């Protein structure tokens, strides 16, 4: 298990820096390295996920998708990003200019801070708080403020409707995301991501948690898709009725930030799902199949995490290109009359199982 | 380290957007045009402002959410200690959820969860 521990890498960087530098200088350099790495990851994730989305959408619709720029259109999103930087940033006549420019900051801030708490691999974990899940739910709910500000300040009726829908939707589904995660926290007995992962050494919670964990995972995926304003829940930016919803008036790079935040949010939801339900970077083990388990151990933890995340992201894209869009009343009914009561009963069910010691 | 790193993440998030916007402002073309500054509402000329009072239905849901979100915050510490506390914690959460459920039922019967 220890051959792929990133802790040895980070420790060796730390010691080699500490040789001829003062502790405060070392801290500053390490901070710069971390910040740079996360910025790179942030943009890279955006580029890769947009490309993946377009390709997957195309395959679902029996098209080829982007094919012209680079082999298999691989450089398409990079070209799009350059195009968006070179576009003129437009502001509507009566828009509230300050709030209009503030909105991308808030959205990216929420996404970026949430990304920092992701456990990417063994020993590769920037923010490992003891209140990890609480921190993530708190930080990711900041994004809706940005959306509301964006929609309100644009002075466009479509933006306003989109923002209001998004406000009601994200806020409602946040409850389900939080409660479904708590179902597993009852089992794991900790809010810290590293401890939740460590508690899944013997098996992932989705397998060991019986039916309640499966129900919680299903609810989490539904609510998570709704939280990112995607898939069948993309009412805030329903292109057929609202052109682009809350970011109709945004152009150029500011629009790109909204787009980027949406895709990185998807990564974050998939990352939380993979960490809490599917064991994070823990390899897949079957009971006492020693040989099989050894082979699985040889796959680096980084691949396990990104593999699970990629699978969940694919699932979310699958939702998007399969289900028709919901209406706002259907959306709110689904959350308040189905998911929330089921979730509350589900937590009690899980607590009872933990009490009786019926879980594996 | 952890708590200081939080500030780092705030700063670098602001830096991403800030640097991007400044860079884009430098390289992007700028031209003033009256039509360009109109809000885009599918080509039809806009009537009036959009800074208006809006449908109350959305706010009702947000108010119900506020109540339930505070309840969720109470469940967080419970979920952590559930395993070690055992029976006491279970009975407590059953009572808590009954009260919570009654609240939801009340909102349901008052048609606060209905969209019309």
Question: Describe it for me?
Answer:
The complex is a heterodimer of chains A (360) and B (116). Chain A has 360 residues and is mainly α. Helices cover 69% and strands 1% of the residues of chain A. Chain A has one domain (90-356). A two-stranded antiparallel ribbon of chain A has the order 1-2. In chain A, a hairpin with a 2-residue loop joins strand 1 (119-121) and strand 2. By secondary structure, chain B is mainly α. Helix content of chain B is 68%, strand content 0%. Chain B has 3 helices and no strands. In chain B, helix 2 packs antiparallel against helix 3 (87-109). The interface between A and B is large, with 80 and 71 residues.
- CATH class bucket of chain B: Mainly Alpha
Please tally the helical runs of chain B, counting DSSP H or I stretches of 4 or more residues.
3
Count, helices of chain A: 15
Question: What sequence of helices (H) and strands (E) makes up the elements of chain A?
Answer: HHHHEEHHHHHHHHHHH
The percentage of residues in β strands of chain B lies in under 5%
CATH superfamily of chain B: NADH:ubiquinone/plastoquinone oxidoreductase, chain 3
**What does the overall shape of chain B look like?**
flat
Q: Give the C-alpha Rg of chain A.
A: 21 Å
Helix content of chain A: 55-70%
* Strand content bin of chain A: under 5%
Taking all residues together, what is the mean pLDDT of chain B?
82
Count of discrete structural domains of chain A: 1
The coarse silhouette of chain A is globular
Total beta-strand segments of chain A: 2
* Percentage of residues in helical conformation of chain B: 55-70%
Number of strands of chain B: 0
Distance between the termini of chain B: 51 Å
Poorly predicted residue ranges of chain A? none
Spans where pLDDT lies below 50 across 5 or more residues of chain B:
none
CATH structural fold name of chain B = Methane Monooxygenase Hydroxylase, Chain G, domain 1
| Cα-to-Cα separation, first versus last residue of chain A | 23 Å
